[in-house]
Every structure is written in C-alpha cells, then in structure tokens.
Amino acid sequence: RAKIYHRADYSYFTREMGVEIRERVRMMHALRTAFEDERLFIVFQPQVHIGSGKPIGAEALLRWKTEDGTLIPPDQFIPIAEYSGLIVNIGEWVLRTACLELSRIHQSGLQDFRMAVNVSQTQFSHPLFLQLITSALHDAGVPPENLELEITESMAMTDPDLLIMTLEKIKAMGVRISIDDFGTGFSSLSQLQKLKVDKLKIDRAFINEISDGTNDGSIAKMIVQLSQSLQLEVIAEGVENQLQAEKLMSFGCDHAQGFYFAKPKNKVELHTWLQAYL
Ligand code: C2E
Ligand code: MG
Ligand code: MG
Ligand code: MG
C-alpha cells in the first residue's frame, strides 16, 4: 500500500515539475522577445531627505508590460532573467538608460542628483562589468560619484573574494555602492567591514514594523546606529506613512524612499515632480 502511494506521489511530482519547467522556458522566451521589442521600461523612484522631502536621487526600477498590457513585477521576471543569462544584456541596457536619464536630470539643474541601479550577481561577476560601467558613465557624461550600484547581502556569500576585488575596483572608479534590503540576508558584520560599501538600505520589512505594532522599529534603529558607527550612509526603504518618517528621523536616519514621499515614476512624471525643486 505504501508503495502505491509512493508511486502516485512520484508521478504527480514529476508532472508538476514538467509544468513548472515549461512555464519557465515560456517566460524566458517571452522575456527575450519583450526585451527585443522594447516592452521593458524603467521607472524611477525618488529618494529624499526625510525632513524636507527634497530629492537626493532616484532608484531605477525595471518594468515589463506584456502585449496584452499586463504588468509583470520584477520579483517574478528578474530571477528568470538571471538564470537564463538575459540579465547581462538587460542589465547593460538598464545601466546605460539610467545614466542617460541621470545626465538629463543634471542638465536640468540638479547637479548633486544620484541614480541608484540594482545589479544582480550574474552581472557583477561578468568579466566585462567594469568596462560596462566606465562606458555607460562616459557615454552619458555623468560623474561616477553620482552613480550608486545596489547589491545584496547574498552576493557576499557566493564568492566573497571575487566580490571584494570587484568592489574595490568599482570604488576606485569613484562609483558608490549600497547594500539593498539590508538586514534580510546573512552577511556577517566582519564581512560588512571588509566590503567597504558606502551605504545601507534598511529593508522595508523593518520599516513596516514601526507602525504595525510588532515593535517600535528597534531593528531599523539598530541599523541606523550601525551605519553611524561604521560611518556609512543609511536610507530607509518602503516608508509609507508619517509615523514611520518621524520615527526614522528620531533614530537619526536622514534619507528615505517610499510611497509616502513618492511612488516610482516614468521619465515625464519624474521631471514634472522634480520641477518643484529646481
Ligand atoms: P528593491 O531594489 O529593493 O526595490 C524596492 C522595491 O520596493 C521596488 O519594488 C519598489 O517599487 C518598492 N517600494 C518602494 N517604496 C515602497 C513602499 O513605500 N511600499 C511598498 N510596499 N513598496 C515600495 P519593485 O519595483 O517591484 O522591484 C522589486 C525588486 O526587483 C527590487 O527590489 C530589485 O531587487 C529588483 N529589481 C528591480 N529592477 C531591477 C533591475 O533593473 N535589475 C535587477 N537586477 N533587479 C531589479
Ligand atoms: Mg534596490
Ligand atoms: Mg530593497
Ligand atoms: Mg528587493
């Protein structure tokens, strides 16, 4: 009897797996076509001074709109772009496009404005990544100091030595590095010091805790203190209300990104939004 159950489970399992693999392959082809047909686009979410709401920069966020108008969230297609290798070309396009947009913002009069770009493991370990950064900055004519690359803690675990080496070269170019979703990965504090990053982005889970009654935002507060003792910049992600903003200010966190201040915007919307600060 046990055997029969086992066989039934087994065939069920493989059938499900077959469906999942086919679905992934379908998504991969669709993503490649979408990229070629220019159905991927970038939105920009402002990052601000918490106290004044004034912009300091923006994060470039990738979007995929299918032919029938459905928006597929990046959390669903970035993993597919990564394991298929498509992320290398897509990521290059994101970086170049973000730098060009940064150049336009600088020309409009906001010279200190920074652009943050998410970079995945596959891009980071690509042998031509450093050349790509140089070329993207050069072609757009923007200073390296105004570009910020967002990496994740998990990247520190895959190949720490390669990561440290690459980071040093990027830092030597003058480009800034921040750790995205900070606090959710498992990087150790000693690793953090070795990585010599510029900035920590407090994951929005810890910002949520400020107002959902879990606690008073003790983890967010701790990350702010950590950033101060390591002399790093810090920014809070996913700030959705005034209470969170005020608490964060009381913790000594100066910068924020979140729907409370501004939602991700297309180019035109971003320029309109920035007009007020020129
Ligand atoms: P992330 O880098 O941590 O980006 C922040 C995410 O939080 C964005 O989701 C943003 O829309 C969302 N967000 C911002 N403020 C709020 C808020 O107040 N409340 C809530 N609930 N959410 C907020 P999005 O755009 O869906 O991106 C998800 C993730 O996809 C990003 O997380 C990033 O890891 C990845 N991603 C996006 N674009 C790229 C890209 O060009 N390259 C790579 N490698 N990854 C990307
Ligand atoms: Mg990010
Ligand atoms: Mg994040
Ligand atoms: Mg994320």
From TrEMBL:
Residues 24-278 form the EAL domain. It comes from the Bacteria. Transmembrane segments: none annotated. This is EAL domain-containing protein.
